[in-house]
Amino acid sequence: MMRFLLLFSRQGKLRLQKWFTPMSEREKKKIIRDMTTMVLSRQPRSCNFLHWKDLKIIYKRYASLYFCLAIENQENELLALEVIHRYVELLDKYFGNVCELDIIFNFEKAYFILDEFLMGGEIQETSKQIVNRCIESSDMLQEDDSSEWYEVELFG
Amino acid sequence: MSDVVEKTLTALPSLLSLDSQPGSAKLSSTSKLGNLIRGITELTSKHEEEKLIQRELTSIKDQVSSPNTSMRQMKELMVRAIYCEMLGYEASFSYIHAIKLAQQGSVLDKRVGYLAVSLFLNESHELLLLLVNTVLKDLQSTNLIEVCMALTVVSQMFPKDMIPAILPLVEDKLNHPKEIIRRKAVLALYKFYLIAPNQVQHIHNKFRKALCDKDPGVMTASLHIYLQLIKENSEGYKDLTASFVTILKQVVGGKLPMDFNYHSVPAPWLQIQLLRILSLLGKNDQSTSEIMYEVLDESLRRAEMNHNITYAILYECVKCIYTIQPKSELLEKAAKCIGNFVLSPKINLKYLGLKALTYVVQQDPKLALQHQMTIIECLDHPDLIIKRETLELLFRITNGQNVTVIVEKMLDFLRISKDDYTTIDLVGKVAELAEKYPFETMNTVFSLGGDMMQPDIPNSFLKLLSEGFDSDEEDRKLRLFAVDSYVSLLQSEPNKLPQRFLQVISWVLGEYSHLSAELEPATVMTLLSKLLDLKHTSSETKSWVLMAMTKLCEGGVAISVAQDIYETHSSSMDTVLRQRAQELQHLSQDSELRGRVLPRDAGLMPLEVDSSLSFLDGFVSEALAAGAAPYKPPHQRQEELAQAKALSLEPYSLSLPISMSSCSIADRQSPTLMSMSSGLSGDSTDLSHKGGSTTLKLDGVKRVWGREGYLAQREPVEETAQVEVPSPLRSPSQQAEADSTQSQTPTPTVTPELEQDKQQLASSLFVGLGSQSSVCLMGKSDPTPQRFRRKAQGRASSSGASEKTPTSLGSTPSPVDNLLCNSLLDSNLVSEPTNQTPQASQSLDTTNGNCHEELTDVKENNPSLIHNNEEPDKPKDLCLSSHLPTELSGLSHSEITPLCSNQSVNLSACHVQKEDSLQLVIFIFNSSDSALQQMQLQVDSGELKVNYCLSLITDSPVEEVRSHSVAVCHYSVTVKRPSVHVEVLGMLSYQLPGGTPQTIQFSHKLPLTTFIRPLTLSTEEYGSMWLAFSQDTKQNLTLINDDQDPLTTTLNVLKKKLQLHVVEIIGVEGIVACQLVQDQPCLMHCRVHAGTLAVWLRSPVPDLPDCLLYHCQRALQEH
């Protein structure tokens, strides 16, 4: 099972956080701090896996953004890397040439996509087409109402 | 694909940095969130950011509470509030509005509302209760999107207590026509199963329906639940194996729709899930494993494409193949596959290769041999993670011959490791290895591991020194060596040594420095006294030092040193130090007294402790006569204090019974602990109880330091001798393979010397692995195997927990020795945990069931028992239980636990609770091929009254047991003196035909609870008895708080687990009674006070209240 997913920038700024198990605010803060320092201090050409307490941390950098996924000990590291990659692909398909700014300004969309992809710390839907169809069907409802403030960003 | 993404992403990175780039034009200029984000990026200091956000939050706060704000605006405000929270600023005022938005908004507002709720609140937040209704409404909605959202939020976070409210609705969704809803419902139920398994128990058959769903997505989702269920109970799902295999076959064969493909690999997540389930099902089960061989082979074959995802599948396949019952062809293929991982230039794959090797190397050490050069490369890898994993692997292949090098490598890593978690883990591992290993390493371990290591490591080390080994001469050398090495350490730089190490040093010097002829006590005294002057020396260490000096002060110079020390420390603020200084001064003046108080080599002498402190009686009565206040036990003082101040100052936990249990169960007290604690722990009750039951028992303690410890000086010499023969282990083909590895590494130009270094390292690391190599090695150097045979013996003797006569082991037939010595690694394989039969335990009633836990506890503390059961023909519980005496056979009995065994006999025991006594049954199984003659079993205990009932074979105590048959002895036992665990000691003597008489000893612990019976009383009788009893104890216990009436619940738990009789419950008070067989009552008065249960126990029997209290506490903790 996955425990949490964090997205942060090269400067260590948090961009997205998803916790799959209950966690106190203090723990969350500590984890975020630990993850950013650990991951950002990794040398290039190191492997993408780390240990943190009893968890495995799988991270991958896409341009300026780090994706950092914590999984339980018996899980498969390579598969977790592919979870990250599939998420990036989903974001890319939705935003079209996704960049960090898309995620900053439309973070709620990034959350919605994540919720269609993972649920309760497990993979829910791996198909790009289906996840997209789900998100778009919700967005369609939105299009009727063109005064929406972020409409402009999404479709304009 | 990833390349494309990465390229496009790298084209844009500068966008984020500042505002004026063209990228910002792309962003909405109208969005308030956009403005906020841009505003923040323009700022230069944290302080400014804080100001800006606070302003933003104030404005959001104003708007959300305004009645004119529409839901749409609210949605926008929530997004901004989420953003502020993500930056680390609290926006708790918006939580309630997030819930409102989820409740009242349109479908899309709702979505943001739910998102905000799931980000803001966690499962225990009280506001979540307000969400329950919304979720209920949405689950019943006809709008699919609303249903989806509700299911999503439910699986994200939902209060545990409220699950029953929505469970029926979620269950209904399993029949929903839309597969996406069914799938989400299954995942939501999975989540419920994780947080509250008993609430979804009734729908297990619905899970089966989900498994058979026509939509593969729903089926995949249900596998999460099945993995969990099978993890907990693989027996119950064996029938599904064939179905899982069929599913996997279809997936691998590409029968699923294209939608499930990931980079043209069919449903990899599903494949891996299935492989994981199969490996759980096939573990230790030949017939189930056989069903899956074919599909595993197919999976290995199909996963050929060079992509991460196929490697992920392969890795899981390999793990599965090595977990289930082995099949040689598959193992061969899996080993090849691991080779591909290890040799891969991709670092992630290499890492997984090492992990896989670590996983399989215990079964197949030769595999490590094949990859030795790669492993050595990885040992020097710049990436610490790789290095750490390599050490893990080396740790698994450690044997007597390579331990030196491996420990060195681990210590090297410790020096650079910054992470506490890793350090603790690694220090533990090093210590484990060092337990078979010389002093230099232990010194390094003490210095580096420092005060972070577990306290029992130095204790067991000292114990080993004091216990010694078989020969006095060796012991003397060992101790002398320790003294010499410590003296030289103290002479160099003592200020850098950690406290624990200093304590070890002082004890050793105090005890053994007289062994060194050229060492004057005064020299040692001076060295030690320097420690007292060091700034960082803790007062605990100082008292160790003073204690050591007290043992040493002899001769003129020493006495004057002692005098000096006394003068400096006699006015110390620390009372313990002051007392030690006093003792030092006093004993240095009176050498005759010192000889009596601190005799030399007293380590092994049993220490008699007068638990009642009777020698002080005179002193006490004098003091009382002189007008001193009488002693009040702590709880009495406490109560008076509480009354005086109306403030509860009770301790958090029960210190006394816990320390008792730790001593009686763990049995790991060291001589040092004894010598120090009398002075250090001002609390003498602790000791007095210990003394009652155990007089510093040294047998039965694992002997952790093999005598090889002493062979320190010789080892390096042999090492170099081995190295001079250039890698005798490696066949030409391996050489070639290793060379090819070499060429694949990033630095192909390795200088010849470097190469040679590595080969040397390899030969020292991988020595003793694999059968051929070890044979060839033994042929070369005779002394080595000889040494290890001795070690193997040493371990064997230590594992026979109660085996007091190591000499008898020396006479064990040699084939056993050779087996151990030829393959130390293989012996690990043989010692699989003994089969416990769940069937036997199922039939037991709760009380006996309760005993199990206690007994298994005992067993865990005595791992040697389990390890020793390597005999293939060990009788199983089930067949033993058929030997129960007829009058007991109808009654339920506790689990049959092994007591001890040797080559010819196995002893096990169980007990049966009867109303007026406890029946102890001992089974003697003759596993040898000849009959045991003149067998005599003696059972004895200081705390128990043991009545011999009968033996099944003959009535006479002297008897014969035929080969491979069982004799049963049956005793009726009652308690003479209560203690937390009552120990039965026994000895079996027997004779093999034509052999000498042999004895085997054992001990068996029975928890006091097995002797407790309910005592039925009326309230009036209780009242009069209460006043008559003198022994009492008070303590606060945790209250079980999951009910309207916590007192009744708690008492019922106690009643059930400990067989107490609840006499009456009046309001917040309850009275309980029980008796110890036979007729030793104990009364308990309970009162709920400030959220805890204040209990007061009274009994005419000393120690009974304390012991019972301990069990009450445990029962409640376990609940």
From TrEMBL, chain A:
Signal peptide location: none
GO cellular component, one term: clathrin-coated pit
Localization per record: Cytoplasmic vesicle membrane; Golgi apparatus; Membrane, Clathrin-coated pit
Top-level taxon: Eukaryota
InterPro entries: AP1_sigma, AP_complex_ssu, AP_mu_sigma_su, Clathrin_sm-chain_CS, Longin-like_dom_sf
Domain AP complex mu/sigma subunit: 1-139
Molecular function GO terms recorded: clathrin adaptor activity
Keywords from the named record: Coated pit, Cytoplasmic vesicle, Golgi apparatus, Membrane, Protein transport, Transport
Membrane topology: Peripheral membrane protein
GO biological process, one term: intracellular protein transport
One Pfam family in the UniProt entry: Clat_adaptor_s
PANTHER family the record matches: ADAPTOR COMPLEXES SMALL SUBUNIT FAMILY
Family, similarity comment: Belongs to the adaptor complexes small subunit family.
Subunit text: Adaptor protein complex 1 (AP-1) is a heterotetramer composed of two large adaptins (gamma-type subunit AP1G1 and beta-type subunit AP1B1), a medium adaptin (mu-type subunit AP1M1 or AP1M2) and a small adaptin (sigma-type subunit AP1S1 or AP1S2 or AP1S3).
Protein name: AP complex subunit sigma
Organism: Sphaeramia orbicularis (orbiculate cardinalfish)
Automatic annotation (TrEMBL), chain B:
Annotated spans, Disordered: 674-695, 715-755, 777-850
Keywords attached to this entry: Golgi apparatus, Membrane, Protein transport, Transport
Domain named AP-4 complex subunit epsilon-1 C-terminal: residues: 1013-1117
Membrane-traversing stretches: none
Chief place of localization: membrane
GO cellular component, one term: AP-4 adaptor complex
Protein's job: Subunit of novel type of clathrin- or non-clathrin-associated protein coat involved in targeting proteins from the trans-Golgi network (TGN) to the endosomal-lysosomal system.
Location(s), subcellular: Endomembrane system
SMART domains xref list: AP4E_app_platf (SM01356)
Any one Gene Ontology BP term: intracellular protein transport
Name under which the protein is recorded: AP-4 complex subunit epsilon
Membrane topology, from the record: Peripheral membrane protein
Lineage: Eukaryota, Metazoa, Chordata, Craniata, Vertebrata
Biased composition (Polar residues): 730-739, 795-815, 832-850
InterPro entries named in the record: Adaptor_Complx_Large_Subunit (IPR050840), AP4_complex_esu (IPR017109), AP4E1_C (IPR028269), ARM-like (IPR011989), ARM-type_fold (IPR016024), Clathrin/coatomer_adapt-like_N (IPR002553)
Bias (Low complexity) ranges: 674-685, 740-752, 816-831
This protein's encoding gene: ap4e1
Family statement: Belongs to the adaptor complexes large subunit family.
